[in-house]
Amino acid sequence: MLAESRRELILRTLRTDGPSEVRSLADKLGVSQATIRRDLEQLDADGKLTRVYGGAMTLDDDAPFAQVATQRAEDKDAVARTAAAMVQDGETVLLDIGTTMQRLAHHLHGKRITAITSNLAVFDDLRDDADVELILLGGMVRRRYHSLVGFLTEDNLRQVHAGRLFLGTRGVRGDGAVMDTTLVEVPLKRAMIKAADQVVLVADGGKFPGVGVARVCGPDDLDAVVTTASADPATRIALQEAGVDVVQV
């Protein structure tokens, strides 16, 4: 395969799958990891992507919510349904931003709970459910990704407490570290972790292992992970060795 064609395939893969590791790209394209690294270096130099730890992401990786929602939709719904089944009447839950959380919210209908979120898609899904006491955190509207961000959101998080946080991620590194690529969301995720007694990471197998610009937390901050059977086995083992309960669906 010509280098130009291979690099175009790399960009297409990143746009479809999101941030990807060198190993994953090498497997998909049938070339060595050294070749992929050279391609990524050239594409980065050309201003067509951004290198991150262990891989790369497109410059426009903060894709519109509706576009991200269509990626691995069945897997997202499977992990969301399993996570929602953990919730019992009377609980207070905190829901992170992201498309998987919207699906989780949909499966919470009919439960007598309190839900706290900065996710506008979650708010839209639950606002007409009389069984749900719904608390929307304030902040600046991030329209492309249907969320509220900024210091106001962080201040609000310091005023609330939840029994359980359902946390999203852009990727989980091989050592179990939870990563993200949207820097404005990272302090909010950390504040959510502090505001909850239990942290459940909800992420389909496509995010194992994953990449990201910033480390949100380590496996020691997680109580459980809900993922699909396609998740990287070595990463699952690293999480389990750190004492995390890994639930596969």
Automatic annotation (TrEMBL):
Chain ranges of the HTH deoR-type domain: 3-58
Keywords: DNA-binding, Transcription, Transcription regulation
Record InterPro entries: Carb_Metab_HTH_regulators (IPR050313), DeoR-like_C (IPR014036), DeoR_HTH (IPR001034), NagB/RpiA_transferase-like (IPR037171), Tscrpt_reg_HTH_DeoR_CS (IPR018356), WH-like_DNA-bd_sf (IPR036388), WH_DNA-bd_sf (IPR036390)
Source superkingdom: Bacteria
Database matches in SUPFAM superfamilies: NagB/RpiA/CoA transferase-like, Winged helix' DNA-binding domain
TM region(s), chain numbering: none
GO terms assigned for molecular function: DNA binding
Name of the protein in question: DeoR/GlpR family DNA-binding transcription regulator
